[in-house]
Structures are given as structure tokens and as C-alpha cells.
């Protein structure tokens, strides 16, 4: 352990370093799994729990995508055609450029029900998803999708024909053949469309039923690729237009297809039900056939509609029971809160694949190899944003779980367990999970490799801290308490290893100091080298990255982790290590005197980073040599003054981390300074929330390079506003000279945030990644129902006290 590391962990470090000789011989440590039993193999995540979560809307990158939680799944999805600017457009993957007026899961319980509304240029689709476990069904049970279509005829040109067109498909990632029921499909005849067999669920059937007059076509093909299925459909339609001058699938199939696409052409208003029945008898005996018909009937038509309505009502009741908003906010705000939670839960996905690990500075293997593959792994996780970020992000996930553990503790523990099971032998977890072809297809190649020297804020401790507090406050049933305790018991060694990884690899030169590794100290293209590892990307740090840096936010994250581990130690009645425990580590990191020596600046009344820094830097156009005696005119970094070791004088979110961590005493004059900073409209305060960087900063809303606009340089972000509100709420309850001041600021900030987010949702149909500090308008990616969903906790005034 580095001399600057904090006191915990020598015994653990020895344990983490112990990997079997065989594994050590064949695998580099960076791609060697952590040597402990997997959390997700606990009995509580098997049996009924695992089976009831087997099927789900686990393909969040699609407008509607269904799969099972298994690596080679049978998958389903929805496409449709819309007319825009006189041209046909096929929808499938969530994309900003599709310009839908609104979409997202308005309600979703994470288990067996979801309702989504999509509004797309005169076309409105309402999709309901329902699961059912009937006697005789295969593993995971049956499921159904109900699609209601409403098209505005006046917005469609004559070329479109009779009305709306949907495409529903099944595909088998395992390559198993799908059997078309018959070549001449007829909606008024037998409802059976396709059948097949798999080892996991047995024989299965897909049925289509509708009371409306529909035209049906199909296409089947065999492919190992599933991330571009819409391209195959477009190719088929294009070939048929050339042949028949009609927008129809070919009504043909390859031999042994593992993809079947069904085209449904209806009027301008129709409803259709797709029903998936598993565990059927492939021989089709009369007795079994009768039972299948009963199950199909129960998952179609009026029966399906009634069950969806019942589930919707149950969602509403559960939402109110958990968040208790009826007496706290108006009905419009409650509706937005439901949509936030619905799309966050509905956006939970299942991914399987291998991360790519960058080799730079780590291994000396074949020179032409620049990455090595992690072990094949699965990840069950929520995602920040379905069109832009439909994959797992480590620092986002901790914020997601603040909501999800309150909604369904078992789903939350399952997700946290999946993340911790991705830990390698050193205690490192890749910060961005890009697993499988579908996920890879959405990420530029240069951003795929993960760097094992780099971390990400350990926000899972935020959620775990809330769960532990819930245990202390008897907020769970006896059965849940037992399962949570078993989870924490198995997770503890991984949590220790994660803490120790930070404590050794991210430590600074001074005792109890830390800095984010991974900044580029050679770049000439960035005004201020980014700190992607911190989660704050372009937030201003020291102008010249070096090992002399001290980052106040990371120090506070380490305090959170140590404090949470100490709480778990006490809860599990673990024996204190002779060389120190997490309680003493937390006490050291919460020492305000030591914190102030490292990070507090009296002149500003603010906490700052420390590093090799100068303010006199600009971007300037210069002729730059690009090789082979060629030059190009580029906007490059121009340093006008030699940097010196000093405080980095940028007031922003990072400055408030000691306040967010509730480290400052309620009676301290420094608390008054923090409250003054927060309420100063030249620094943080706006009528829409607290901005990320003060207007007085030299980098406020400045581009960081020729192509990189400001990101964390002024815009309003909800995750940090939530944490600041949490601290304000805390100090408003603590006796002291600044209690009333904290209470007044809390009340106004909470009101501003709720009002602005609800207004934006009503005007645009979305929650947004960030909000403009000047006019409050949503900016960036949407629908961003990751940490922006924390608005529902703000409405509920639900904060976790550490």
C-alpha cells in the first residue's frame, strides 16, 4: 500500500493478490475474476426470483424489445413505418434523429408489466407488455404484447395506402430454427404464426389475434447478426418495391430461418395482440392443444386488456405507497414522477459479452494488440438513456439504485450483485459496460476499451448506505432483512477490495489525499484536460495533470465508502482488524481540520482541488505538423504562463462535496459560507436549479476543444442537485445558527427544480440529461430517465442520511 494511502486493508490486499497458480499462468491479472463466490449465485437470486425475471423488456436500446436473461436468447422486437417529409422511415432502434414527439414507459413494474406510449409524426402507438405463469408453461412462463395504433389520416399521404404498418419479429440468438406455421398467413384463420423449441423453455408458439381487419405478410432469414435486423427488413422491402411497387415483405423464407418478421397492415386505428406461449406440446395433442388455446385466450383480447388495466392500477397504488406524493406535489407532478420511474424501471436491460480492456502501460504482449478481452460476463442493469447510453455506466448506476431499491429491493440487490461480480482480481470494475453486438453497435470504437488504471465514483455505496439505513430503521420485512444480510455478507469482501483498489491506485502524495488517474497530460487540443474518470468530464481541474493533484470530490467519495463499510461491519458484527477499521478511516477522512488544510480557501470561502495550475491558458489557431511534412490549421492549447502548485480556483459542484457529504458541523462558520455560495446567483443559483460551474469561473460555458462544447461547465444536473438538496434537508433539521437559512434555501431550490422539470416534460414530452442555466430548457440526451429520475425522490423528500 502506498505511503499516502489510508489505514484499512493490508490483510485484504494480500487476499486480493491471491489467485490460483493456474489462473495466474494463463490469464493476466487484469482479466482474472475476483477470487470469491459470485454474489448472483446466492440462493435468493435463484429459483422463483430468477424465473419470474427471466423474460422482460431487456433491450432498452429498442423502442420495444424483449429477451430473456440468458446469453443466447430468443428475442423479439417491434418496428413500424412512418411517413415524414414525403418519405418512408422504418423505426426500430431508439434514435434522437427519429424526432419522436414523445416516448417511454409511462408505467413499468420491472417484473411482469409495462405500458409505453410512442408519438411519432401523426402516429401514436400504445404498447402493453404482460407476463403470465400458467400451469404447463415453460421456464419463465408466457408473455404478451398488445399494440394499439392510432394514426392521424390527415398527416399521411395517399402513397401510404390503407393505414399504419407494423413489423413484429422473433429471432433466436442461439441459431435455432423458427418454424412458420403456414405459408399463407390469414388473421381470420388460425392465430398461430410460428413455433420452435429451445432447451431453456421447451417448445414454444407465437400467436397473433385481433378483432380488426388486418393484412399479414412475412419474411424469414438466417443470420448470426442481430444488431442490424432493421437493415435486413429495409432491404427486403426495397426489393419488393422494385418488383411490385408495393411496400410489402416478400412472403418468403430461407431454409431453417432463425429470424421471422411479420408485417401487419391495418387501418388508421387498430389493436393487435402478440402472444408467446412456452412449454407447448410439439406433437399438438388435442388435450394439450385445448390448454394452449386457453392460455392464448387469456393473453389476448378483452382478457389481456383487463389484466393490463389491473396492473396499471397496481402500479399507481404501489407508486403512491412508496413515494407518498399526494400531499406533497400537484397531480401534474405526480404524473411526471410516474413516467420517470416507469421508464427507469422499463429501461433495465440484460447484456452479455466481453469488455475490451486497453493494454496501454499494462501488458507487453504482441505489439499489434491494443486491447485484451475481459471474461465473458452478463450484466443486469438500468441504463441512463435509451437512445444515447443504452448500456451500463458504473457511476450512474448508484444513482439509479436510490430509486430502484425503494421500488423493488430484490431487483436492486440483483443489479448491484451483477455489477460487483464484474470485479477483477485487483478489485477494479470497468466503468462502462459495452457488452454484446447490440451495445457495441452504439459506441464509437475509440471509446470501447476500458482502462484498468482508471476508476469511477463508487456511487453504489450511496444505494448500499440507504439500504443499510433501511435495515436499521426496520423498513423491510423479516424475510427481506435476512436476504439483505446474506447479500451484504457475501458482497463485503468485494466491497472491501473495491475500496482498497481506490485506496492504493488513486491515492495522492499526501496522507489521506486522492486524485483521479487517467487525465491526459500530453494533450494540446483541450483547454483543460478532461477527467472522465470523475464522471464530471470537462469540469475544470488543474491545468497540468500530475501526481501532485488532490481532488476533493474523490476524497469525499472515499469517506462515503469507508463510512458505509463501517456501517456494514457493525451490522454484520464483524471483528475489527488489528491494523484499523473503516470507522477510523471514516473518522480520518471526515477530519474537517485536515480537509481544510488540503482543500479550503479562505479568500473564496470554498473547497477546491489542488494541483499544478495556471489560469492563463487559451485555445488558439495554429499550424500543426501532422506527419510526413504536412501541416494543418488546428485550434490548440496555448499556455501563457508557467503553472505552479496551488488551489484550482473554480467554484462548482466539486466545491460543494464536503457540504454534500455533511462533513461540516452545523455550527461552523464554514457552513454559512457554503450556504452563501449556493444562494448566490452569480455563482450557483438560478431559478431552475443549481448550475454546475460558477459564472465567475474563467471556463464557464467555454468550449474545451474545437468540437467539444461545455458539458459540466454551467448546465444544471439533477444528480448533484439531489445530493445538495439532501444536505440542505439535513442541515435544516440540525440545531444551529444556520438552520433557518438552510431550510429556506432548501424549500426554494426544491420548488424550482420540480417546477422546471415538470414544465419541460409537459412542453417536450421528455426528461432531459441536463437543463439550461439561463432559461431552464432541457438539453442533451432525452429521454434521460437515469439520474434525472431522482426528481421523484426530490418530490418525495426521500434522502439518505450518512
Q: If you average the pLDDT, what whole number results?
A: 92
Total DSSP E strands: 30
Largest sheet: 8 strands, mixed
Structural class: alpha+beta
Q: What is the overall number of helices?
A: 20
Can you walk through the features of this model?
With 802 residues, the chain is α+β, with helices and mostly antiparallel strands. The protein has 20 helices and 30 strands. It has a domain at 63-323: Beta-galactosidase, Chain A, domain 5, CATH 2.70.98. The strands form 9 sheets. Strands 1, 2, 3, 4, 9, 13, 14 and 15 form an 8-stranded mixed sheet that branches. Strand 6 (113-120) and strand 7 form a beta hairpin. The radius of gyration is 28 Å and the shape is globular. Mean pLDDT is 92; it is low at 7-25, 283-287 and 361-368.
